[in-house]
Design brief:
- With 333 residues, the chain is α+β, with helices and mostly antiparallel strands.
- The chain has a single domain, classed as L-amino peptidase D-ALA esterase/amidase, CATH 3.60.70.12.
- It has 7 helices and 16 strands.
- The strands form 4 sheets. Strands 1, 2, 3, 4, 7, 10, 11, 14 and 16 form a 9-stranded mixed beta sheet that branches. A 3-stranded antiparallel beta sheet has the order 13-12-15.
- Helix 1 packs across helix 2 and helix 5 crosses helix 6.
């Protein structure tokens, strides 16, 4: 398997802006020369920017950046900094008057921990671009994963730390497909290989979990609006799936759809009314080796599974919420 996760694909860079004290941050994926792109939104509570232009029949065929950010709706401001960074360097949709960078974005809800009055802004997005490199992507409680939490069936008081992870897969013919995922889900997280819970609501004893399924069975019926009003039920898992294969926009959409299977296999429940689960798909088109969507989509889902697990295992405790690793060792009581 290729190293470097998402940035193992030539033409892509990634960078973070992190505020550990406020428990928020943002992550940018840059493709300055342009990537064919699409998106699949499965969650019932998404907050996104420019996703409509990624659909079929739209004029714009390529984008120049994807922003994953904390701060809920306020965090959308960070995209302005990404646009400015690209424009200053001449990257964007060409016009006679200059260029218009095309940046799409999605947010996670991380306001319940840290400082709710500090959110990623334009300067944060710009700083993430300045930090972007083609080297290995830092994982865990950084960037968009800084304030991420998981396993909130019994409120934030028993939650564990989420985070950001990345992973890549490669076909025998040399095509690479990679995923970068910020995990901030309401549900518990499973090991996809054996179905074992690796991050669930904290039990009464260190290292133990309470079953999310049992909690759901016992929970009285509640509308999605009522759940969202509790704040700790406002969540979202965001991902970018990318490949160096040459894809059309319709094919990129199907890749995003198939990649969501990796999310559904590792997060229980997935695509809920209070999650904004969103998966972007990018194609650099730099590798002209023949491939097919069945092959790519299968590996994309696998990359998403691995990236989600890494987001949990690489996370560190923050703002009073322990990581799964710390909880397993008896920390974070």
């Amino acid at each position: 398997m290729p190293s470097g996760g998402l940035t193992s694909i030539a033409g892509l860079t990634a960078g973070h802006w992190t505020d550990a004290e406020a428990a928020t941050g943002c992550t940018v994926v840059l493709c300055p020369e342009g990537c064919v792109a699409s998106v699949d939104v499965r969650g019932g509570a998404p907050a996104t920017r420019n996703t409509d232009l990624l659909g079929p029949g739209r004029l714009v065929q390529q984008i120049h950046g994807v922003l994953l950010t904390g701060g809920s709706e306020f965090g959308q401001d960070a995209a302005t900094g990404v646009v400015r960074w690209l424009e200053e360097r001449g990257y964007g949709f060409p016009l006679t008057s200059g260029v218009v960078p095309i940046v799409t974005a999605a947010v996670i809800f991380d306001l319940p921990i840290g400082r709710a009055d500090v959110r990623p802004d334009a300067a944060s997005g710009y700083a993430a671009c300045e930090a972007a490199t083609g080297g290995p992507v830092e994982e865990g409680s950084v960037g968009a994963g800084t304030g991420a939490t998981v396993a909130k069936a019994l409120t934030i008081e028993r939650a564990l730390k989420g985070g950001l992870g990345t992973a890549a897969e490669r076909t025998d013919s040399g095509i690479t497909v990679a995923a970068l995922v910020a995990v901030n889900c309401w549900g518990e997280v499973l090991n996809p290989d054996d179905g074992r819970v690796i991050a669930g609501p904290r039990g009464d004893q260190p290292g133990t979990f309470i079953s999310t399924l049992d909690a759901v069975r016992k929970q009285p019926p509640m509308s999605a609006f009522a759940l969202a009003a509790q704040e700790t039920a406002s969540n979202t898992t965001l991902g970018v799936i990318a490949t160096d294969a040459r894809l059309t926009k319709d094919e990129a959409h199907r890749l995003a759809v198939m990649a969501q299977a990796g999310l559904a296999k590792t997060i229980r429940p997935a695509h809920s009314p209070v999650d904004g689960d969103t998966m972007f798909a990018l194609s650099t088109g730099r590798n002209e080796t023949a491939t097919d969507l069945l092959q790519l989509g299968t590996l994309a889902a696998l990359a998403v599974e691995r990236a989600i697990v890494r987001a949990i295992t690489e996370a560190t405790g923050l703002a009073g919420v322990p990581s799964a690793g710390e909880w397993a060792k008896g920390g974070g009581r």
